[in-house]
């Protein structure tokens, strides 16, 4: 594990809005091929951490290195894909097919006025297939369920073939009965395609069989380690000042229903 490439290296990171500390001395290392789940209560600094990693906020104290480069010198942003909580607020009347939405993820690469090459067409189909929606590629995105729409946005982020995919609460707008198949799809992206995933979620207990590492955050870093260590920590109880009951996140795993990639996602 120690020989793997470090994709994100955060050390001594602190951040404040006006006079309020949001993050304090955060140290996180993410290696290539990992699937990291970040959990924490509302206001714990998760969103701020993502903004700092994505360069949307400038760091104030500490260091952030992406793919071995200080974030201030990092320019290879095509290596990073990002999916926000889009499905929850998406305009269902938007007149575009699944194929067209995913194609828009290549705009920067091929330009607005350039014709697509065969390789670009194949990239689009591959990305759509990777999220289990190939049969719906010509369906208008407004006709899809919230979960299907979120899969489309993931495909749009994947079409440029990033090495790291960051997802912020991706199950917002996904029907509760289909959340597990959604996480199964993310697990496949990580295990079968080798994509490094960073996932912010409130459902960390539902994906402990998918994520390889867990971060527990609430202004301070309370835990950062492998999933097995997290399960032990959860059983023994987090420190009282963590402010988040991890036991509330336990999930009855059960057996897969078979409605996985290619099934009827809601």
Would you give an account of this structure?
- This protein has one domain: P-loop containing nucleotide triphosphate hydrolases (Rossmann fold, 3-Layer(aba) Sandwich), CATH 3.40.50.
- The chain is of the alpha/beta class and about 270 residues long.
- It has 7 helices and 10 strands.
- The strands form 2 sheets. The protein has a 6-stranded mixed beta sheet with strand order 6-7-8-3-9-10, with helices on both faces. Strands 2-1-4-5 form a 4-stranded antiparallel beta sheet, with helices on one face.
- The relative contact order is 0.17.
- Helix 4 packs across helix 5 (about 145-160).
- The longest helix is centred in the middle third of the chain and has 13 residues, at about 120-130.
- A hairpin with a 2-residue loop joins strand 4 (about 60-65) and strand 5 (about 70).
- It starts with 5 loop residues before the first strand and ends in a 30-residue tail after the last helix.
- The protein has helices at about 45-55, 100-105, 105-110, 120-130, 145-160, 180-190, 225-235, and strands spanning about 5-15, 20-30, 35-40, 60-65, 70, 80-85, 165-170, 195-200, 215-220, 220-225.
- The radius of gyration is 19 Å and the shape is globular.
